[in-house]
TrEMBL record:
Family label: Belongs to the cytochrome ubiquinol oxidase subunit 2 family.
Gene (name only): cydB
Keywords: Cell membrane, Electron transport, Heme, Iron, Membrane, Metal-binding, Transmembrane, Transmembrane helix, Transport
Name of this protein: Cytochrome d ubiquinol oxidase subunit II
Organism: Microcella humidisoli
NCBIfam families: cydB
Location relative to the cell: Cell membrane
InterPro entries, per database record: Cyt-d_oxidase_su2
Spans through the membrane: 6-36, 82-102, 114-142, 162-182, 194-216, 222-245, 252-273, 301-324
Membrane topology of this protein: Multi-pass membrane protein
Length: 338
């Protein structure tokens, strides 16, 4: 097997892991205005992701580093064309991380309110822009013969791109609310479950529209059955997640939503294959898995590193989730906590 194709799969796996794990972090942050009735509720919500949010975000760093090393031409074109969008994502992630740490340092309500809204915005902006970015990659962007993006930021804000952004925003929001139902107790747990039922309906409608549009744009690809199969499986998992949440099966609802996000990203990768960035200027200018990859020697070294390190990282992350598996309650928040 060509190592370039193997690494296309590995990079895809890393982004799937990032969206599944940091996705519910984004959802928890976006849900604060809807579920945080008082400061204690907000502290409970933040504490559900407090031990793991930075570990979840590490998947993005590893995915970006792997993309840079395995597909340097893809990385260069992506960061050249999507520079402003990716910069906004980075600023939002920094603001969110800072807010988690600094919110508790002030005693005034105004201080906490500032950082609460930084968490909300710092969660919503990446949730939206990641969808916009990936939707545009699938649809194709203006790339010339030198591999340079010739469009602007506003070219990315097209109907399909915005629908992709709205899809990820809603998927992550519902994913996060389901996580809160799984990790909290009492009234907050019940309100989170009810909110997930309502947001889930809208998520199903928007995600279905995006998946159908994606399939219709790629009716001419040779592996259409694979794309249709993955899209259909994502739709079934999403509906199953909503049904499970409505029935109060919180673990099943959360697991099926994680499967939905994973299958949706896999369907996007299937729509791309064998391209990594299709060109709308001329198909001959498209970046493919083969012409965008590093040398065989580089990929060989990376493969051995991945074989050794990835099982260790996955084991460590699994252990972390096991240690912090218990529910967070209002009673577990000290009265003097800020």
């Amino acid at each position: 097997m060509d190592l370039a194709y193997l690494w296309f799969g590995i990079v895809g796996f890393l982004f799937i892991g990032y969206f599944v794990l940091d996705g519910f972090d984004f959802g928890v942050g976006m849900a604060m205005p809807f579920l945080g009735k008082d400061d204690t509720d907000k502290r409970v919500m933040i504490n559900t992701i407090g031990p793991v949010w930075d570990l979840n975000e590490t998947w993005l760093i590893v995915a970006g580093a792997s993309l840079f090393a395995a597909f340097p031409y893809w990385y260069a074109t992506l960061f050249d064309g999507f520079y402003l969008a990716l910069l906004l994502i980075l600023v939002a992630l920094i603001a969110r991380g800072v807010s988690f740490e600094y919110r508790r340092l002030g005693r005034s309500d105004q201080w906490k309110s500032w950082f609460d809204w930084m968490i909300v915005v710092g969660s919503a902006v990446p949730a939206l822009l990641w969808g916009v970015a990936f939707a545009n990659i699938v649809q194709g962007v203006a790339i010339d013969e030198s591999g340079t993006y010739t469009g602007t930021l506003f070219d990315l804000l097209n109907p399909y791109g915005l629908l992709g952004g709205l899809t990820t925003l809603l998927l992550f929001f519902t994913h996060g609310v389901q996580f809160l139902a799984l990790k909290t107790d009492g009234d907050l747990r019940l309100r989170a479950r009810a909110l997930a039922v309502r947001s889930g309906i809208l998520t199903i409608v928007v995600a279905a529209a995006f998946l159908v549009w994606t399939v219709l744009q790629h009716l001419d690809i040779a592996h259409l059955p694979v794309l249709v199969g993955l899209a259909a499986a994502a739709a079934v998992a999403l509906i199953g997640s909503w049904v499970a949440n409505r029935a109060g099966a919180e673990k099943a609802a959360f697991g099926l939503m994680a499967a939905t996000i994973a299958l949706a990203v896999a369907s996007i990768l299937a729509a791309l294959y064998p391209n990594v960035m299709p060109s709308t200027t001329d198909p001959a200018f498209s970046l493919t898995i083969e012409n965008a990859s590093s040398s065989d020697y580089t990929l060989q070294v990376m493969t051995w590193v991945a074989v050794v390190m990835m099982p260790l990282v996955l084991a460590y992350q699994g252990f972390t989730y096991w240690v912090f598996r218990k529910r967070i309650t209002r009673a577990s928040i000290p009265v003097a906590a800020h």
